[in-house]
Write a structure and sequence with these properties.
Radius of gyration: 18 Å
Shape: globular
Helix content: 25-40%
Strand order of the largest sheet: 6-7-8-3-9-10
Order of helices and strands: HHEEEHEEEHHHEHEHEEH
Largest sheet: 6 strands, mixed
Number of helices: 9
Bound molecules: adenosine-5'-diphosphate, magnesium ion
Strand content: 25-35%
Length: 264
Amino acid sequence: LTTLLRRPLAASARPERAVDGEVLLETVGLTKSYAGADGELPVLGGIDLEIRAGEVVALLGRSGSGKSTLLRCLAGLVPASSGTVSYRGRALNGANPGTAMVFQNFALLPWLTVQQNVELGLEAQGWNAPDRAEAARQAIDLVGLDGFESAYPKELSGGMRQRVGFARALVVEPDVLMMDEPFSALDVLTAENLRGELMELWESGRFPTRAIVLVTHNIEEAVLMADRIVVLGSRPYGTVQATFEVGQDRPRDRNSPAFEELID
Ligand code: ADP
Ligand code: MG
């Protein structure tokens, strides 16, 4: 925890503060329902949200509140039912070119090596083999997996697998890094190390990502990592219940009444 508590101090050293940054992602009146056996299941009920350059935004809420759905809409992986999602002012039509995603369960292909898994995103973008190999090696080095290029996922610990997940996302140099509960499959210490390292890397500017959207149901994680916390409620369907600026007028104490009321 002590490593993580350094973050709020480091944040003030960022060149671009959240409030001043360019709007990278924006939703206006975003709704989403899924088609189910008994008709439409409404999941998001009108979300207005901005993600600006320089900020880490946590999407916090109970299971089923629509956090993953919102993240996927922002990434253009699922289409909105109504309303708009835009990246740098342009409405999305398909996958968001400015984002890359890190998943809770790592989503690595078990029959591919670390190197091959990391190269996947670049292949889709039409990179040639030598450039792919070099970019992947750099990303693998960045996440501390130098020397594991030829290993298969099953030979790695959970923490190392998620490092591969980070390398695969970062290799495409996303403008906005999207993370869906990236630490929740890891043990507490591994999660803490990985969080701390990621934030240090980001704040040191060693990869060019300008904003991070983190989905979590862990209040402590949201408080420690984010500049802004967006709380999604799920009744009757997902809407923004509240937003907090971290380290400003918002209590950092997870036991504060305001927090507990919001999460219930
Ligand atoms: P969270 O990430 O906050 O747990 P989700 O966005 O995963 O929430 O899910 C919100 C609701 O939408 C849940 O009721 C879930 O069952 C439903 N849902 C999610 N994905 C789909 C899908 N692809 N098809 C149908 N229903 C879905
Ligand atoms: Mg989810």
